[in-house]
Design brief:
With about 200 residues, the protein is of the alpha/beta class. The protein is built from four helices and eight strands, in the order βββαβαβββαβα. The longest helix has 20 residues.
Length: about 200
């Protein structure tokens, strides 16, 4: 079973996650409804099982909670992937939501690298009064860094910040689902010319 359990506690946040790469139940409990909605989209369309509880100093703002949740999910993803033998490794996906269109490209490279592009007129947009659109980048930056994967996330067009954020989470979900999937009938070797994706 490709699973992991991570429990992270700091003076700012407490986040616990049980992750399964091969599906299962989903239970997501965060202090922000929109963020919980995005995590549900990520796990549902990513084919992931997730039991997650996140708490944080939201009286300051959501940044610490969102970023630390990305850290925890990245750690869980890295642990659940193990030596990454047999995975497809590379994947990309497009996801539309009405006028918004996002593209995600994933490489389970063993190196954390994140690149995020928004249309210039949305760079300072807010999805809700508590959730700026920049938190999408903060979350996926932490996920890519701790999950040791390369992620390019480009919002190709969009007007409504809610649609842009949701299309982004769905595109990453679809690309990640394909990248972590096991190659049917292939020898379970590490898909790298250097023989390792963990060192």
């Amino acid at each position: 079973m490709r699973t992991a359990s991570i429990d992270r506690k700091t003076s700012e946040t407490q986040v616990r996650a049980d992750l399964s790469l091969d599906g299962g139940d989903r239970r997501i409990d965060t202090p922000n409804g929109f963020f919980s909605h995005m995590l549900d989209a990520l796990t549902r369309h990513g084919g992931l099982g997730l039991d997650l509880v996140a708490r944080g100093d939201v009286e300051i703002d959501l940044h610490h909670t969102v970023e630390d949740t990305g850290i925890v999910l990245g750690d869980a993803l890295r642990e659940a992937l193990g030596d990454r033998a047999g995975v497809r490794r590379f994947a990309h996906a497009f996801a539309p939501l009405d006028e918004a269109l996002a593209r995600a490209v994933v490489d389970l490279s063993g190196r954390g690298s994140f690149h995020f592009r928004l249309p210039p007129d949305l760079e300072q947009a807010w999805v809700t009064t508590e959730f700026p659109l920049t938190l999408v980048g903060d979350f996926f930056g932490a996920l890519a860094d701790r999950g040791r994967l390369t992620l390019h996330l480009d919002v190709l067009c969009g007007r409504n910040p809610h649609h842009v954020a949701e299309a982004s989470f769905k595109a990453v979900a679809l690309a990640l689902r394909a990248a972590v999937s096991l190659r049917a009938g292939a020898v379970a070797e590490v898909p790298s010319t250097k023989g390792s994706l963990t060192v």
